[in-house]
Amino acid sequence: MSEPKSKTSPMPVKRYGALLYRYLRPQWPKALLMSLLLLASIGLQLVVPQILRFFIDQAIAGGLLEVLLRAALLFFGVAFSNQLLAALATYFGADVGWTATNAMRADLTRHCLKLDMGFHNARTPGELIERIDGDVTALSNFFSQFVVRVLGGVLLLIGILVLLWLEHWLVGLILTIFVAIVSWILAYRREVAVPATHAEREANAKLFGFIEERLAGIEDIRANGGGVYTMRRFHGVMRQFFNSGLRAWLLRSTLWTFAIGLFGLGYVMTLGLGVYLFSLGAITLGTAYLFVQYMVMIETPLEQITQQMEELQKAAASIARVDELLRLNSKLPPGNSHRLKAGALAVSFERVSFAYDDKPVLDKVSFQLSPGQVLGLLGRTGSGKSTLTRLLFRLYDPSSGQVRLSGVDTRDADLALLRQHVGMVTQEVQLFHATVRDNLTFFDRSISDERIMAAFRQLGLDGWLERLPQGLDTMLLTGGGGLSGGEAQLLAFTRVFLKDPGLVILDEPSSRLDPATEALLERAVSKLLAGRTAIIIAHRLDTVRRADEIMIMSAGRVLEHGPRERLAQDPRSRFHRLLEVSHHPDADLSLQGELA
Ligand SMILES: Nc1ncnc2c1ncn2[C@@H]1O[C@H](COP(=O)(O)OP(=O)(O)OP(=O)(O)O)[C@@H](O)[C@H]1O
Ligand SMILES: [Mg+2]
Question: Which residues lie with the beta carbon below 6 Å from any ligand 1 atom?
Answer without folding.
Answer: 121, 356, 359, 361, 379, 381-387, 427, 590
